[in-house]
Structures are given as structure tokens and as C-alpha cells.
Design a protein that fits this description.
The protein is an alpha+beta fold. The protein has 10 helices and 11 strands. The N terminus is likely disordered.
């Protein structure tokens, strides 16, 4: 799942993909994730929530989240990412509150919500009006079941949150630890400890994870060329992109695209 921070492009993004690790990120959009096969772990802040097939996860705007796939069986999930403009009367509520638990287990997911997710899943590119209606059905049926609490805005200046937000906003540009430290007003050594201590990785690997997640979604969901994709994802060259991609996925970007499309076609048969 690519971590776009600035709302851009279509108001509703639909992504159907195998479950995999996604680095901590945040964005100004509403996100629904419906597990269609296997299991998935949804991380919110410092909490990790287990999801099984049929469970629905709901991520409010501007909340740090990530995904993990621990099961040996390859899972799959469908994501609906909606910009605030299509959330209607729920927009203000989404910014003021946060769910006590962001996951609705299968037995508690309203039938209307499942139907809305499936309609979006199989329409591919929904009509804007219909897409907005489905998103608002999801919100209307699910929000009353979440148990909302008022957001603690005192943590908005936390360095972890600032770091996630900065990378999410700038990963498509040339970005360095030194430049980021300067922008955030901290030393590079303090910032380096955030990545090693909280994210258990270094700065460059974290940025590459974000870029790879973005590139994978473009490979799966668009017809854009690999050259366009690596440049848009922020990689300095196709050679670097291919090397980092093979290290992460053990295949080339072209092979990855072909395999994912074969799996998607097989799932529709």
C-alpha cells in the first residue's frame, strides 16, 4: 500500500493485492482494508491488531499505520482509500475522533458494508457518484460500531509522527537524513535513533520500503511503464530500482507485474 500523504489523483483509490509488510506511514485519506484470504496484521501507532478473512479494518485520516503478514499462507486484502472530500458529513468527525479498536471482526461487519466493498472491488474504476455513495455507506454502517474517542492532539508534535509524515510527503523526491533533520530541527543522530529504535531499520532502507510499496501498487494497478514508475517513486536510476526491487522481492519489476496479474486473473475464474 503506497503511503501518499498529500491528497492527489482520484478521490477513491482501489487496490486488491497480496498481504505484505508495509512500513509505518500516514496520509490524509480514509482507508478501509477488507481481508479476502488468509490473515493480516494492522498496526496503529504502537498497537498491532490481528485480522482474519472477512474482517474489516478502518483507518482514519492522519493516523500512523502499517501492515504485517506473519502467516506462511499468502493472504490477500482489498483496500479502499478515499479522500476527505467524498466522506460527506463524516469529514469533521473523522478528524476529531479515533476508533478505540480499528478492526471489526467478520461477525460484526454489517452486510451493507460487505456489499459496498464488493461492489467497489468488482467495478474497478467506479463512477464518482456511485463511489462516493459506497464510501458513505461504509462510514454510516461502520462508525457507530467502532467506539470513538477524542483524538489526543498533544502527540502531534512527536518526532516519530513528524518523521513518518515527512517521509510520506517527500519520498518521491531526493531526500536525505541530513536534509530531513534540518527541516525538523533536530540532529541527524537523534533522527537516526528514531529509525533504528522505533522502525528497526535505517533511514535509507525505510525510504526504499516506502518507495517500493508505491512502485508495487503502480505495477499492479496501472499500465505505466517501468521507467515512469521508478522515476515517479523517487529512485535515482533504473539500475538502483531493479537492484533494490530484486533484493526485496527476488524477482524483477516486470516479473512481479506479470505474476500479480496472473494471480488476479486466476482469482476471478
Amino acid at each position: 500500500m503506497y503511503p501518499f500523504y498529500e491528497a492527489a489523483g482520484p478521490d477513491i483509490r482501489l487496490i486488491d493485492k497480496e498481504s505484505e509488510h508495509t512500513a509505518p506511514h500516514l496520509h490524509r485519506a480514509m482507508e478501509f482494508v477488507y481481508v479476502t484470504r488468509g490473515s493480516l496484521e494492522l498496526g496503529m501507532g504502537r498497537e498491532l491488531y490481528h485480522m482474519e478473512e472477512g474482517d474489516l479494518g478502518i483507518v482514519f485520516p492522519d493516523m500512523i499505520h502499517h501492515y504485517q503478514a506473519f502467516s506462511k499462507e499468502r493472504g490477500r486484502a482489498f483496500y479502499v482509500i478515499a479522500n476527505p472530500g467524498v466522506c460527506g458529513v463524516f469529514g469533521e468527525e473523522l478528524l476529531k475522533y479515533a476508533p478505540e479498536n480499528p478492526v471489526l471482526p467478520k461477525e460484526k461487519v454489517p452486510g451493507e458494508a460487505v456489499n459496498a466493498m464488493m461492489c467497489l472491488k468488482w467495478t474497478g474504476e467506479p463512477d464518482p457518484v456511485a463511489g462516493q455513495a459506497y464510501v458513505q455507506i461504509l462510514l454510516a454502517k461502520c462508525i457507530p460500531l467502532l467506539g470513538l474517542t477524542e483524538r489526543n492532539r498533544q502527540g502531534s508534535g512527536d518526532l516519530v509522527e513528524q518523521s513518518v509524515a515527512y517521509v510520506s510527503a517527500h519520498f518521491r523526491e531526493p531526500v536525505t537524513l541530513e536534509g530531513m533533520a534540518l527541516e525538523l530541527g533536530v540532529s541527524r543522530y537523534v533522527l537516526s535513533r528514531v529509525f533504528s529504535g522505533v522502525f528497526h531499520t535505517n533511514f535509507n532502507r525505510y525510504v526504499n520500503e516506502i518507495r517500493l510499496s508505491y512502485a508495487c501498487d503502480l505495477l499492479e494497478c496501472t499500465e505505466r511503464s517501468i521507467t515512469e514508475i521508478y522515476m515517479d517513486a523517487g529512485f535515482e536510476s533504473q539500475r538502483t530500482f531493479n537492484r533494490v526491487f530484486r533484493e526485496a522481492y527476488r524477482v524483477t519489476p516486470r516479473e512481479y507485474r506479470m505474476r500479480q496479474r496472473e494471480k488476479l486473473l486466476a482469482g476471478k475464474e
